[in-house]
Amino acid sequence: MTTKESDPVATGSNFASAEYAEQWRRGEKLRRETSGAATEMMLDLANIRVGDRVLEIAAGTGDLAIMTTRRVGPNGYVLATDISASMLKLAAEAAREAGFTNVETRVMDAENIDLEADSFDAAMCRSALMHFPNPSKALAGVYRALKPSGRFAVTVFSTAERNPFHGLPLSIASRMAKIPPLTPGQPGMFALSGHGVLEECYRKAGFRDVVVRAVPVKRHFPSTAEAVSAMKNSFPRLQVLLTKLSDADRELAWSEIEQKLRQFEGPNGFEALGEWLVGVGTK
């Protein structure tokens, strides 16, 4: 994935690093618990069936590829692509441990997809499209690789206001690091959250029958302290911002983050609502 220097969190070196990959792997349990419904909806909207050939963009450490392989069965095929060889190494290990031999991993820039035209039945991209400098270019590449009537399904974050578990910490870290908020068009967690933005990306790439659905999520922890502890192990983009602070300021940032998030603690522990957008388009 190509990047813009003005985006302090979405740099290729960060995404491609072994440290980032390990943090992403550690976040698998949290992703499964909080975004499971959105992921299942994405798989359903992609219309993945037994025997299908499926392309995954920005596959990360392979948890979605494994879910997809279970759907396509032993006669299907899943190609997991990512800019990060470190991520894909963990994905390949996960596939082997699961006993799958029909998962292939390949390092590939999402905005320069080099695949045979009309060669996949479906494609997916989970929680990554909003980080691409030119998501329409990635969509156009996927469109070319899909067979006629093939579907491309994605998940992206809704607005920062609807996702305070991520929005509040990022706001605090950005302010303390003296990094201005991202402007419209810059890659970032909430870049495709605006009304009609994701739909327009699909249509610009040629997709038809475009549908975008909002899916509520809930993040639950026994306490705010445990929510913050989980965040420290599974929120790489926040970590990148915090590395720009001194040790003392970093501690202050974490203290403020915990204080702000405490508003979501109640009789049942820590519960923060969020929202994903699940999109699909047909070639």
Detail the topology: elements first, then pairings.
Blueprint: H1 12-16, H2 18-26, H3 28-45, E1 53-56, H4 63-72, E2 77-82, H5 85-97, E3 103-107, E4 120-126, H6 135-145, E5 146-157, H7 164-176, H8 197-204, E6 208-221, H9 224-234, H10 236-242, H11 247-261, E7 265-266, E8 269-282
Parallel strand pairs: 1-2, 1-4, 2-3, 4-5
Antiparallel strand pairs: 5-8, 6-8, 7-8
Helix pairs in contact: 7-10, 7-11
Question: Would you mind describing this structure in some detail?
Answer:
With 283 residues, this protein is an alpha/beta fold. It has 11 helices and 8 strands. The protein has helices at 12-16, 18-26, 28-45, 63-72, 85-97, 135-145, 164-176, 197-204, 224-234, 236-242, 247-261; strands at 53-56, 77-82, 103-107, 120-126, 146-157, 208-221, 265-266, 269-282. Strands 1, 2, 3, 4, 5, 6, 7 and 8 form an 8-stranded mixed beta sheet that branches. Helix 7 packs parallel to helix 10 (236-242) and helix 7 (164-176) runs antiparallel to helix 11 (247-261). The chain is globular, with a radius of gyration of 18 Å. The chain starts with 11 loop residues before the first helix and ends with a strand. Residues 1-13 have low confidence and may be disordered.
